Amino acid sequence: MAVFPFILIQNKELAGNDTLIRHEQIHLKQQVEMLVIPFYVIYLINYLINLVIYRQHDKAYREIIFEREAYANEQNGDYLSQRPVWSFMKYV
Ligand SMILES: [Zn+2]
């Protein structure tokens, strides 16, 4: 998980997982662009709205705009260097 300015991982082996690390780096960029605290507020509100809509934790989590961007681009090795600012807005 990404908690600005850190990426927290469960064990050392995961540090070599490029997809996971890129996913969390995307979240770090989102957090900087949202000035950190508002990121967490909107993340939580988006999750709660999704939970009302979908009534399912996994679906509510995956449909959070920040997660949608991260999952859509976590396997693209060029994404972070080419990503325009506020790219998560494409996933609203
Ligand atoms: Zn994520």
What ranges have pLDDT less than 50 throughout 5 or more consecutive residues? none
Identify the strand order in the major beta sheet.
1-2
The separation of the N and C termini measures 21 Å
Strand-residue fraction?
under 5%
Explain briefly what this protein structure is.
With 92 residues, the chain is mainly alpha-helical.
List the helices and strands and how they pair.
Layout: E1 2-3, E2 6-7, H1 18-33, H2 37-54, H3 57-62, H4 65-73, H5 79-82
Antiparallel strand pairs: 1-2
Helix pairs in contact: 1-2, 1-4
Zinc ion (ZN) is lined by residues 23, 27, 67, 70.
Report on the structure:
The chain has 92 residues and is mainly alpha-helical. It has one domain. Helices cover 58% and strands 4% of the residues. It has 5 helices and 2 strands; from the N terminus they run ββααααα. A two-stranded antiparallel sheet has the order 1-2. β1 (2-3) and β2 form a beta hairpin. α1 (18-33) packs across α2 (37-54) and α1 (18-33) runs antiparallel to α4. The model has no long low-confidence stretch (mean pLDDT 97). Bound molecules: zinc ion. Zinc ion is lined by residues 23, 27, 67, 70. The site of zinc ion has 4 residues, from α1 and α4.
